[in-house]
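Throughout this chapter, every protein is written as a compact record of paired, labelled lines. An example of such a record is reproduced below:
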Amino acid sequence: MTSPAPRHRYTFKEYLDLEEVARVRHEFYDGEIYAMAGGTPEHAAMAAAITAILGRQLDPRSCRAYSSDLRVRVLATGLATYPDVTVVCGPSERDPESGTHVTNPKLVVEVLSRSTADYDRGEKLQHYRQILSLDAVVLVDHEIERIDLWTRSGETWRARSFGAGEVVRLDAISAVLPVDEVYAPARDA
């Protein structure tokens, strides 16, 4: 009887070294390194629209909107990832092991894709909810015009869905996200 090959467990440092030379992005969790799926033009257009919409509304002296180039680390679980849009309020706090990963987002946005939607709505959302500074998670559906907003109220998280013609109020950052403006660029991509 043959036994399965042992899995290699990577250190966070090994992950960081890989990311410095990799041509694709990776997530890191529990000693494993996972290649991230490539996006579609529609996905990229929606993420760019959200970054621009939020960026216009935020006072850069207090909060800043970042593209998917910003790395986020969930210290409580060890997940290292690249949300599609991240808002950080106040000075960014960096991971003690990596100056390239922030640990204090106020809001994260994930534009879902067919291949990652279940993960983003499930396990990844659970990781995000462990970030003490995080007050809101926005999940943008890739197939229908629907945005799910998860907000923290004390120890409880609540979800609310928004559709075409509606406006998502992001009280955590004093901004709004019009659903039609998020999806408009994707229609032309």
